[in-house]
Amino acid sequence: MDLFPVFTGKQKIGPLDRPLPKVKYEISVNAFAFLFSEVVQYCHSKVYTVPELQKKLSEMGYHIGQRMVDLIFLREKNFKRETKLINMLIFIKTNLWKTLFAKDADKLEHSNDDPTTYYIIESDPIVNKYISYNRDKGSLNCASFIGGIIEAVLNETGFNAKVTVHWHKGTTFMIKFDQAVIDRDKAKE
Amino acid sequence: MAKPVKNVDSKKISSDLFSLTYGSLVFQLIKDYENPEDVNKQLERIGYNIGLRLIEDFLAKTNTPRCFDFKDVADKIQSAFRMYLGITPSITNWSQGNDEFSLTLEANPLAEFIELPDHLINLRYSNILPGIIRGALEMVQIEAKAWFLQDYLKGDATTELRIKFIKKLEDVMPQGED
Predict the structure, then answer these.
(1) I want to staple A171 with a disulfide (CB 3.0 to 4.6 A). Which of A143, A144, B87, B130 is the partner?
(2) Within 13 Å, how many C-alpha atoms sit on residue B2's CB side?
């Protein structure tokens, strides 16, 4: 163990010493598509089945979501977290989506028969645009990646939920909250 | 003759999604390979794969004719950076024989939120970029080598990417053909 710091004449500048970067929409969609396709291929090389691949992609997304939370709340919400369930969902539909994809999500719906379930519907998510789906991998949906981001954002803000991805009216993210989250939200009213 | 493509690549996305996705990939590689040297190699390989395909996209969109010297190549690489990453690196430090130059990146969209911990000091975080350049140039029959001379993440003032021309690749007739 070094007891004394070694002075190399170079001082590292950490991300916290820099001002928080503004949202910039400068990266070409193609650059992202190339990168994402390598991400999918890399994940594919590490797993054997479609569900495993989806899970891996959603883990990658989760890693991003955890970092997005602070970033967006600091940047756009004036350091204030959302505490109400419906506001949180609207936050995802608008703020999160805007930061990621420069647009709102297409739809936000509440399930008729299950009070714990909500849907966010996106007819044409960017991650699916450049991926061709083989018939033998019928159920694969690379939007699991975005599902992971949503799940992380919800969990990190105290709304524990499971997010799954389905092919339905485009891509549907099914958000199933823990019963405790719903109860808490009811008690507040 | 084909008309030049107008409004080249108007669709843009946020750099946050891009840099965080890349971060997530690097994180995964570090988990899988542990040794930073191996991660560097993997990143270079992934970049190479991207380069092989990116060049098609670049040529199709820009209608670029063949480059006649390495200075020309440098300009093209610069415009590719602008087109894909929204940054314009400056071209500096030409070698005597005009076969080696540096790209200086003021900002690096890949490394927007990154701090390298001490045990990963050997990690070349943005190593995907040299890979992309090598792969793309190989497809236009230029063998080149690219590597980082300076890295902002390691405490240097800027990020400097060095590119060296090695040789021109010739078309080889497939065996058994006249």
Answers:
(1) A143
(2) 10
Residue whose token pair is 């990963």: B120
Whether B38 has its CB under 8 Å from any CB of chain A: the answer is no
Instruction: Tell me the average pLDDT of chain B.
Output: 87
pTM of the shown model: 0.87
Q: Which of B11, B17, B153 sits opposite A100 (nearest CB)?
A: B17
Q: Which of B101, B108, B92 is nearest to B156 (CA)?
A: B108
Question: What are the tokens at B30?
Answer: 């570090």
The interface predicted TM-score of the complex, written ipTM, equals 0.87
Dump pLDDT digits (tens) for B96-154: 988 999 999 988 888 888 888 888 888 999 999 999 999 999 999 999 999 999 988 88
Tell me the chain A residues in contact with residue B32 when contact means C-beta distances shorter than 8 Å.
46
Q: Is the dihedral of CA B87, A67, A119, A147 positive or negative?
A: positive
Return the HEC string of chain A. CCCCCCCCCCCCCCHHHCCCCCCCCCEEHHHHHHHHHHHHHHHHHHCCCHHHHHHHHHHHHHHHHHHHHHHHHHHHCCCCCCCCHHHHHHHHHHHHHHHHHCCCCCEEEECCCCCCEEEEEECCCHHHHCCCCCHHHCCCCCCHHHHHHHHHHHHHCCCCEEEEEEECCCEEEEEEECHHHHHHHHHHC
B54 touches chain A (CB under 8 A): yes
Helix A50-76 to helix B15-33 angle (10° resolution) is 130
